[in-house]
Design goal:
Layout: H1 2-16, E1 23-28, E2 33-36, H2 38-43, H3 59-62, H4 67-76, E3 84-91, E4 96-104, E5 107-114, H5 116-130, H6 140-157, E6 161-169, H7 171-178, H8 180-197, E7 203-206, E8 211-217, H9 221-237, E9 239-242, E10 245-248, E11 250-258, H10 265-281, E12 286-290, H11 296-316, E13 319-328, E14 337-345, E15 351-352, H12 354-363, H13 367-381, E16 387-392, H14 394-397, H15 402-413, E17 420-425, H16 426-431, H17 433-444, E18 449-455, H18 461-465, E19 472-475, H19 477-481, H20 487-502, E20 506-509, H21 515-524, E21 528-529, E22 538-539, H22 540-544
Parallel strand pairs: 11-12, 14-16, 16-17, 17-18, 18-19, 19-20, 20-21
Antiparallel strand pairs: 1-2, 1-5, 3-4, 4-5, 6-8, 6-11, 7-8, 9-10, 13-14, 13-21, 13-22, 14-15
Amino acid sequence: MIKDDTVHLRKYLTGIIGNAPFGIITLSAHQEVGIINADAANLLGYRSIEPEKLIDMHFTQAFSKIPELLKAFDQFITPGEEFNRDLMDICSGTFIIDIKIRQLFNGSLIILEDVTKQHKLESRLRHQASHDSLTELANRQKFEQRLSKYIIKASKQKLPGAVIFIDLDRFKTVNDTAGHAAGDELLQCISRILHDNVRSRDLIARIGGDEFAVLLEDCPLNTATQIGEAIRADVKKFVFYHGDFAFNIGISAGISAISGHDDKMSTIINAADNACQIAKNEGRDRVHTVMPGAGEYEEHKRGINWTIRIKQALEENSFVLYAQEIFSASSSLQTRYFELLIRMRDEDGSIISPGLFIPTAERYDLMPSIDRWVLETSFASINPEYCYAINLSGQSITDGSLGDFILELQKKYNINSSHITLEITETAAIRNIKECSQLIKRLTDKGFKFSLDDFGAGLSSFSYLKNIPVNYLKIDGSFVRDITTDPTSYAIVKAINEVGHAMNLKTIAEYVENEAILHKLQGLGVDYVQGYHLHKPEALETLRNKERIISLPSTKIGCI
């Protein structure tokens, strides 16, 4: 009678846990299956067997279809021994299973969860964080990480190596004549030519708009020069056809050696970059090879020239604030909202893109001065009825006096702090998480808001998000731009938007370049949108001198 009652109880408990969203198994003190639900049986490989038929089966038999799981249990489950284990990520062939084992009074409890989709998304995020979405080549971050590791290896083992920097000649002509779609197609063609000319172990990266880099490991300098010349020759022979247009493209390339003698990454990169500039200045369509340090004077001189111009712009107030409007994707809020952007005015009155001077400012630690100029100029110029986003660099975040400076400006210009959002890139926030969190806490206590910019570009996005107390997530534009053509980008934007909303954060999508992208984002429920399709950046002074009425379809202008 007792045995019948036990069987009845088991069946009853099995029915209760049948609807659990994960697999549940109990083992007796003799390691026999006591209770098991359908999800657990499915994850163990028993897709056509009722879970009840596994009851009383010894775990060595029950888990036999997953050798990895069986091995783990053999290792960690010993009768009479206390245990509480998390055995993460065991692959069963079909599933990736997250496993937790907990000791019970007279046996053990096992929880199995299918994390296959999560792993695939994380894998894709890792790939996106380290690769260029257009060419599928490595990006700058991955290139520098790999180069850094090889420099250490080369120093220990005295191995040769080289870095090639490549800049396309006449690329702008293709964009201006045939459009950006043609330019994108050309970049993909160039990436294939690069693959055809390097060895399988070499790393190719796209490090800028039309700039590439190649890391040649265990490669003498003369061999690297031959590879560079082969690439140059193949690109020169290549004719790019797009519609009715035909283009001849060339390259300028610079090569620097990894000597294996305590090299510094910055020295090697600067040498290759400078060699590339020398090749361009000497007439293009050529390869220039240098040893590290040989071209430091030219690089230093070029950097010093930019630092002089930056300092002069700060002294003479020749930087210019531009503004790009951000729109509510669905709400009917009335206050207008703008992101403020910096430009430099040249001596002839032309506007210089930040891409030309910001890298030098970062290299020579001038960003804190630029950020303070932007903050003070913004606070002195903005319309108190509108909302604004102002970018802060990673260098400024580590400046302990920045919080005092911002609060002094607020008092000086009588700024409504709730109308100011300070944007920090995800990468800068993660690298300086302690200082960043302290700054955010101090200023949010005073009413300021914070946005995490370029969210999703870094691998650590979700794990660090709970430790950075921001108000808004700005989804990285590389995902938004491809949302209508790339299912993975769509899934990532959807995931980021859902995670943001689950944490009570508002989401902003940048790089909205056409109507199709806008409709996709509205369908996902993204809160705010920004991009050239909606508003091209204009000088803040120009905006102050004219009235504009811009709205999304069936949507009034909104402010965060």
